[in-house]
Amino acid sequence: MRRVISLWLPRFATDRLRRLATTSSNGISRGRLPTEQDKPLVTVLTAGGRQMVVAVDRRATAAGLRPGLPLADARALAPDLAVRPADPEGEAATLARLAEWCGRYSPWTAVEAAEDGTGAGYGAGLWLDVTGCAHLFGGEAALLDDLLGRFRRWGYAARAALADTPGAAWALARFKDGAAGGETIDDTLTTGPGGSVVLVPGGARAALAPLPVAALRLAPEVTEGLDRLGLRRIVDLYPIPRATLVRRFGPSPGLRLDQALGCVAEPISPRPPAADLVARLIFAEPILHIEGLTEGLRRSTAELCRVLTAAALGARRLELALYRVDGGVRRARIGTSRPTRDPAALQRLFAERLEDLDLGFGIEAMTLTALEVAPLPALQLGLAGRQGAPLGTPADDALAPLVDRLGNRPGLAAILRFGPRESHLPERAVAAKRALDPGASGVWHPMPPRPSRLLARPEPVEVTALLPDHPPVLFRWRARLHRVARAGGPERIAPEWWRAPRQDASSDVIRDYFQVEDEDGRRFWLYREGSEGAGRWYLHGLFA
Q: Is the per-residue pLDDT at 513 higher than 70?
């Protein structure tokens, strides 16, 4: 059975401003602000040349202010009003960080989309799909109480409901107090002292019945239309055929009702997409020292590697997430050049990153996630009892740990190796590839000797030869004359006909290569471009 939490922050914008004004960047309280701490607070945006109230705090609400009110009218109702400009981008960033922190409860968290607030109008919200997670925190009620308690300690007003559909959880979190005086309905609801609501599986129909139709996340004009017809509670919509609702109000009332009752699935897209392979560790007390963090990492890597072994997989990219008591999250990522499930190797790679992580006032939870995995079959054992490479793969086991340690500093993309490319042209025959990537080593086909240094671009030379098709007897390169003592060749390399011709490209004509040695013992690689006797000469490389 699916279990979803809707967390509602009714005064998120103003609570955020209060928190920013009373806490420093490291979370330490700065104390009271005597000039504004006791004043009503609102945020405003300019629209159509007028300043409009978009968020109000508890004191402003008590003074009769509400979102959508012109600022001039708000000042008339509350002359001592504290006004701050709205910060949609900052609010979105803070909400995203809170959703990230909620990953300590479940990997499946998301910020409510803007349209999810239709009908309630105010505040912000988060989704948490806690299916299969509640037992880690002492049950569903204990999880909700812990969640709400932490948000309130950070200065956010919060309410939450847990149900088997997102629609039911959303409605109960925002409208439970309006349900027939708030009494328990058919033993389907359990309420907590902190404003939490837990709906038993299958109890959505009875629990939603007394709530107003606005609890279905309907547009205001749809809610007003239903109200004019006397359809003010959700129970009033139960007997009405869906076709009748569609003809009068469109598909939204029937769709939202079916989603809330579980008749139609409503997916929640997590941010980021939840990984399947996660090791989670909750600490009884906050971890303040690196030694405790190292022990937690050891247990997490051992657990994750056991899961990888059972699935015949190896990790390529991993992420360690540390959840701090102040709501912050610190992350460290590593990558491996080849799939691995060796706990000791993974711990060594993470050990270099732990010193850079700020533990703040303590770490209360950690997760180790395999972001990218690849098949890793069982290893073949040699006759001497030593562990060999997987069957059918190159034996790079000795090189892989070195590449991993080097690559996790500048990045694996900076560790390269040279491999063959299917081309006879010297400048295209070798390619730089990521170290130990599949196919990075390749197969080097036999070919005539090649120079140890290949020039980035062939340089023109002046050549004297006895006959047009003979090797040079002397040549001038970079204003210096070289007399040839020995020569070998030619080696003809034809252009690659399957590649599109390029204008003024030397790779699109025939080349005749010669190895020559001058009287001082220096060896050069020269070629004649074009047909015999009519081409130009170039120096392409130098032999050691």
A: yes
